[in-house]
């Protein structure tokens, strides 16, 4: 066996403290600020060129981004509250500095001089020209063409938005920590093995089981036979993070004010200028067209679901009120697929244990893109080094290479943090270190992390993935692969985050299709009973009361694949209408006709109204309890902290 060569660059280390995070953030910012000071002091407008202004600016930005990502990453993954708080503060330091340098008039006049020098720009390669254009536009978006008083007001608005976003994110993380206590009777219908995993209560909750907002919402909504139980869970979930309601409102009002200050009619027009769609009119037309096509299909689907619900209630001697509620959909969708396609999602999940499925996914990516992944074993590594390489013991670390036909070059590092943990978001992909070219021409190699919240394995059963989670994991891994294979000169263009947000989802959406190809499903699958004698014994004990304990096929059976693929696009219109409602809401709050409209808008009522108009299911609003509908939009962190404001439609492209 040929020994794997050593990578040209070691993975980043995760040895830090709250104090060092903040000190490192300040040091990185000071270094970048000094680099820009040197540009301003050594170059004048007459002598400004790409090489003496934009290139050193790019090197400074590259160096900052190579450290800023990780310093801001701990807030999402650390179990140490002090690290999370320091990381959040560090992110604010970087946000404040980002705004500071993009408002420097001494740097702007130099960039503008290069931008208007046609001889200079005509000689640039495409990426350099793109960098120049984006940096110049960054200055314009930060008010460099405004009078000083208005520019200062814009700075105050943007500073306040940064503060609100940080608080919003902290609240969102804490919001996942809640949940509801139910009696076993209220949870009837949930599989016994899943009930056994729930936390047992004591004291006032003696005899009850705790269902967590972080990991048990889907379990309750899909399996609990009691409509009242499902309703309680859905309503409570939609009422999380009440403290984010005024923050969300203030952010969208300030965004609108800032956009109008810059001469745009609204925030959507400002944001879309740099996206693929370009204008709000394009997005509005797309969404209206989708609604016109999807709603009739959704209404037909709804009639099928109503029939299934009526039959189920009548079989239990219960009265049906003719309504089909938001909290009914997951439960009766499962029943309908089982009835029409003999599709048992729990049986399907048994074929996709997390660990073996991830291994098979990486093998598929190896075949598709000519890659090689090698997990870094920690067996022979000293404990202190082992701990320094990852931020948590659950994390797996892989080296990524091109295969021999691609030159066998090193690509970067892939981190998988897949098990549920407090305060951790999921599913999501985080860049840790961007790729770029250093001043001497050597490459800075990327590192990227994939986060999920799958349940941990137990002695009797591994972590199992329903097919929907297989698709989600493949999608997120696609973002990670995009990051690793990306090769750019400038860090700001590296990976998915370097593209327009309404394009960034496209590669992963395309890759999701592999999860519906029969041959690939075979490759991805392995029944968990085949993983170990202990799992086989546990599985046999589980099915003993149902008949045969003969071990199942190792890979997913052809009949199950056939049923799964037949059901791929069946009854999907309703789920698409649910997503479409969020898109309409996104555009409604970001393109008000006047500033007064957004100032007076009841954002919770707007969300719930648009959701009802697009998604024809009953909820508290149709029961005359509008005030109890909650504020589900406060769980969409990307509307505030990410890049999806006036961009959520990208999931439909």
From TrEMBL:
Q: Which UniProt keywords apply?
A: Hydrolase, Metal-binding, Metalloprotease, Protease, Zinc
Cofactor detail note: Binds 1 zinc ion.
One Gene Ontology molecular-function label: metalloendopeptidase activity
- BP-aspect Gene Ontology terms: peptide metabolic process; proteolysis
Query: Which Gene3D superfamilies has this protein been placed in?
Result: Collagenase (Catalytic Domain) (3.40.390.10), Endopeptidase. Chain P, domain 1 (1.20.1050.40), Neurolysin, domain 3 (1.10.1370.10)
The residues the entry assigns to the signal sequence are: none
Q: Which Pfam families match?
A: Peptidase_M3
Among InterPro entries, the record links this protein to: MetalloPept_cat_dom_sf, Neurolysin/TOP_dom2, Neurolysin/TOP_N, Pept_M3A_M3B, Pept_M3A_M3B_dom
Q: Where is the Peptidase M3A/M3B catalytic domain?
A: 226-651
Q: Which GO terms describe its cellular component?
A: mitochondrial intermembrane space
Cofactor dependency: Zn(2+)
Describe the family membership recorded for this protein in Swiss-Prot or TrEMBL.
Answer: Belongs to the peptidase M3 family.
Name the UniProt record assigns to this protein: Peptidase M3A/M3B catalytic domain-containing protein
């Amino acid at each position: 066996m040929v020994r794997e060569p050593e990578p040209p660059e070691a993975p980043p280390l995760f040895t830090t403290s709250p104090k060092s995070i903040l000190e490192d953030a300040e040091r990185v910012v000071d270094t970048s600020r000094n680099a820009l000071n040197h540009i301003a002091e050594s170059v004048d407008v007459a002598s400004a060129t790409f090489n003496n202004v934009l290139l050193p600016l790019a090197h400074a930005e590259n160096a900052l981004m190579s450290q800023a990502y990780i310093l801001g990453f701990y807030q999402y993954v650390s179990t140490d509250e002090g690290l999370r708080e320091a990381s959040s503060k560090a992110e604010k330091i970087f946000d404040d500095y980002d705004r500071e340098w993009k408002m420097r008039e001494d740097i702007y006049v130099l960039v503008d001089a290069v931008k208007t020098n046609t001889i200079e720009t005509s000689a640039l390669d495409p990426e350099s020209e793109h960098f120049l254009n984006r940096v110049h536009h960054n200055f314009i978006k930060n008010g460099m063409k405004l009078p000083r008083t208005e520019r200062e007001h814009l700075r105050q608005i943007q500073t306040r938005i940064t503060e609100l976003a940080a608080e919003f994110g902290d609240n969102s993380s804490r919001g996942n920590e809640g949940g509801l206590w139910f009696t076993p009777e209220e949870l009837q219908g949930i599989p016994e093995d899943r009930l056994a995993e729930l936390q047992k209560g004591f004291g006032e909750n003696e005899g009850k089981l705790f269902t967590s907002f972080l990991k048990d919402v889907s379990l309750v909504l899909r399996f609990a036979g009691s409509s009242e139980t499902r309703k309680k869970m859905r309503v409570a979930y939609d009422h999380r993070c009440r403290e984010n309601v005024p923050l969300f409102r203030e952010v969208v009002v300030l965004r609108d004010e800032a956009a109008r200050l810059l001469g745009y009619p609204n925030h959507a027009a400002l944001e879309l200028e740099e996206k693929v769609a370009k204008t709000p009119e394009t997005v509005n037309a797309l969404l209206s067209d989708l609604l016109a096509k999807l709603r009739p299909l959704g209404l037909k689907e709804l009639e099928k679901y109503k029939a299934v619900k009526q039959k189920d209630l009548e079989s239990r001697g219960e009265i049906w009120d003719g309504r089909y509620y938001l909290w009914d959909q997951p439960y009766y969708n499962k029943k309908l697929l089982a009835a029409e396609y003999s599709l048992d999602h729990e049986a399907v999940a048994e074929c996709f244990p997390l660990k073996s499925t991830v291994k098979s996914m990486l093998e598929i990516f190896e075949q598709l893109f000519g890659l090689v992944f090698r997990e870094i074993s920690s067996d022979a590594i000293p404990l202190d080094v082992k701990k320094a390489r990852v931020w948590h013991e659950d994390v797996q670390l892989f080296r990524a290479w091109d295969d021999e036909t691609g030159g066998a070059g090193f690509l970067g590092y892939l981190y998988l943090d897949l098990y549920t943990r407090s305060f951790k978001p999921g599913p999501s992909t985080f860049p840790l270190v961007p790729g770029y070219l250093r001043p001497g021409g050597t490459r800075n190699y990327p590192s990227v992390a994939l986060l999920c919240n799958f349940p941990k394995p137990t002695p009797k059963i591994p972590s199992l993935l329903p097919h929907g989670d297989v698709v989600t994991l493949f999608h997120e891994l696609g973002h990670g692969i995009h990051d690793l294979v990306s090769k750019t000169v400038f860090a700001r263009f590296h990976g998915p985050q370097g593209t327009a947000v309404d394009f960034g989802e496209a590669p992963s959406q395309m890759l999701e299709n592999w999860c519906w190809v029969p041959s690939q499903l075979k490759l991805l699958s392995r029944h968990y009973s085949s993983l170990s004698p202990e799992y086989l014994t546990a599985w046999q004990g589980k099915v003993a009361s149902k008949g045969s304990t003969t071990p199942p096929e190792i890979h997913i059976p052809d009949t199950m694949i056939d049923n799964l693929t037949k059901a791929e696009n069946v009854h999907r219109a309703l789920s698409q209408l649910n997503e479409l409602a969020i898109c309409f809401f996104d555009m409604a709050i970001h393109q008000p006709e006047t500033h007064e409209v957004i100032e007076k808008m009841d954002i919770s009522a707007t969300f719930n109204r648009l959701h009802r108009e697009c998604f024809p299911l009953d909820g508290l609003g149709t029961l005359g309890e509008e005030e109890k509908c909650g504020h589900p939009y406060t769980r969409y962190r990307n509307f505030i902290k990410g890049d999806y404001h006036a961009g959520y439609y990208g999931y439909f492209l």
